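User: Could you check the structure of this?
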Amino acid sequence: SVAVVKPKTPYLGIETRDASGRLFVSKIVRSDAHRQILQVDDELIALNGQRVLPANFSAILTRYRPGQTIE
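Assistant: Sure, the predicted structure tokens are below.
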């Protein structure tokens, strides 16, 4: 049998990088991100309308539940 491991914290399926205080996609890790049309080098500007920066990205992401849709 195959075990399905669900994350305990929200995860977008991407890795990010800080470039002069701006947040960019550096790697697509899971296919969920592809369904949302994210690509490497895209800049992440906001999650559900809230501006994200490298300094606040993790804190904002923790406001959501695993599996919850984020726009």
